[in-house]
Design a protein that fits this description.
Layout (H helix, E strand, L loop, with lengths): L1 H4 L1 H22 L7 H36 L4 H8 L3 H20 L3 H10 L2 H8 L3 H11 L4 H22 L8 H4 L2 H28 L4
Helix pairs in contact: 2-3, 2-11, 3-4, 3-11, 5-6, 5-7, 6-9, 7-8, 9-11
Length: 215
């Protein structure tokens, strides 16, 4: 209901990223300038726009959904103004989060099962509570205690669903007709967008429930 009830506002947030995605997908299918240097520059610019727009949209959506859960409003503009000045430290936090997750995953995967759900809420905590990066990780560990297996299971189910759809989109026509109608790259980006939206909203909902900030 949070997503579908406010779909125009949400799609406005993600519009720059969607346009850049589509341009990249078209270039990958062969529709690109004849000049290799120009094509490479446009491709790189598209990737940069996707990354920056995705980051801003995710931060804005998280703050907006949190406010919605607390008050019932959906102040996208206010959330955007709060998010944009905090992009740089959020990038640093995201890099630390990714490095920790990938490092533990590389260690025979077992540590990942314990570390990832423990630090799962750190970016959301930093964004919502304006604490330090270190404090956000400490608070995430404390807040998720006793809830880590359900969190891990939730992410696993969503990830497997996204992977299954992507695999089906690239399968023969007898299995998935869309593979003959829509370029695989575009299907993959649509799946990625939906995955991003669902996970972003679920992170906020889990945080709001565990902290008692939801109405």
């Amino acid at each position: 209901m949070i997503l579908f009830g406010n779909l125009p506002a949400v799609m406005t947030l993600y519009a720059p990223m969607i346009v850049a995605w589509l341009l990249i997908a078209l270039m990958e299918t062969g529709l690109k300038p004849d000049d290799p240097a120009l094509a490479t520059a446009l491709y790189g610019l598209g990737l940069l726009v996707v990354a920056a727009a995705s980051l801003v949209a995710t931060m804005t959506l998280q703050l907006t959904v949190l406010h919605h859960l607390e008050t019932g409003g959906f102040p996208v503009g206010q959330a955007w103004r709060e998010a944009v000045p905090r992009i740089a430290p959020f990038v640093l936090l995201a890099v630390i989060f990714i490095v920790l997750s990938l490092t533990t995953m590389a260690l025979l995967f077992i540590p990942f099962l314990f570390v990832f759900p423990a630090i799962f809420l750190a970016p959301m905590i930093w964004l919502a509570e304006r604490c330090t990066i270190l404090d956000s990780f400490h608070r995430s560990v404390a807040l998720t205690r006793g809830h880590r297996w359900p969190i891990l299971g939730m992410i696993a189910v969503i990830t497997l669903a996204a992977v299954a759809i992507n695999l089906a989109a690239g399968a023969p026509k007898t299995l998935f007709d869309m593979a003959e109608l829509v370029p695989r790259q575009i299907v993959g980006q649509v799946v990625s967008l939906v995955f991003n939206l669902v996970v972003t909203i679920l992170i906020v909902v889990v945080y709001a429930r565990l902290t008692g900030r939801a109405r």
